[in-house]
Write a structure and sequence with these properties.
TRAP_TAXI; ten-stranded mixed beta sheet; 2 domains; alpha/beta; D-Maltodextrin-Binding Protein, domain 2; single chain; transmembrane; transmembrane helix
Length: 433
Amino acid sequence: MEKIIQKKLGLYIVLFSLIIVGLLSFKWVYHSSKVTTLVLASGAKDGQYYAFAQALSKIVEKNNSKIKIQVIETEGSKKNKELIQQKKVQLAMLQSDTSIEPSVKVVSFLFPEMFHLIVREDSNINKVSELKGKRIALMPKGSGSYALFWPLSKHYGLKEQDFKTVLLSPEEAYKALDLGEVDAVFRVSALGNSALTQLLQKPEIKLVSIDQAAALQLTLPVLEESIIPKGAYNGFIPIPADDLPVVAVRAILVTHKNINFDLIYEITRILYESRNELVKENASAAMIRQPESIQSLGFSFHDGALAYYNQDQPNFFVTYAEPLGLLTSLSVLGISSLWQLRLWLNNKQKNRADQYNIELIKIIEQIHQTNDLHKLELIHRQLLKIFEQVVIDLDKDRISPESFQSFAFPWEVAITTVRHRETVILNSRLSNS
């Protein structure tokens, strides 16, 4: 009676293990073929945010077909902040001066966005303080440019009543400046904006320096000291005529803290390791830099991005969760077969097959202990030779059909374990390369 119960229990263990193996295999195949789509909030279609987002989407999909980034047009940083905090999008581009909730995490610093003070030559504006009494075109409320103008003007001792402001879109502002309807335009923009480049080709339009970056950082720590390089807008003339000191903020790519670790790690990896491809699509990518001191910048980074910046590979158990689960199930199968073997040996039902089974037990232990692919190949050949000899013994009645069955199961476990061990080692070496 006890033997019957033990046999039934062993059968249940085997069946349960097979079910687990099947479910894990299905899950692994499903996730391996699944394409994940992330929505990225950018900016206006004629702006740098939208153009960069489109380039990023293209390069990410090119380098990993299982990740698609859908770019949507928005009004800019303020709207993007709302969308990401409300989980209506999974990625967003913001200016680095934008305050965000703890649930929103940074993926990467992107390109710098320079403070551009564009004026007419006949306006007699040569520095920020000379905006007093002038007509200034600002970007619409809610834009990063609009929000940053006020602390800038305050730093230079200007009050709101000291000048007349007009809120216009970038195109409307450039047109108004060209026609003399305003004296100056203030806009925060990355280098390379085509409309701005075209405007600056006119001899009556010029850029004004915005210095005192260190002093401005006392009230706005996110500002960077920067320059608009000589010839940035025309190398022949050149425009500007010399390196022009300005201040800048940096565009940042953010996500929600609950977005999958592996997705964000992969996007960060592509962003930096496929930089040359990205630059061909959008020149602003050339100015992307890794955070120099993540802890001191006041930003909270997504764990997936941090893993890349720290040059750590994703946690082995996270990366190989499915294959490890499969290996665990195979181990259960192996244990159950060995348990059956132990019952066989304890009941003194020893025959020629026992020696083979004992040998298999030792081989399985060797498989788990080796990290050498050459040794695994030798073990694989050894298993094939053992199987060939057992078949010969079965044919010559040296072992019974029942004994052959007791051998076949652990032999299959040993062969499967060898193959899986080879896969784990190869994947580990690829991840570390």
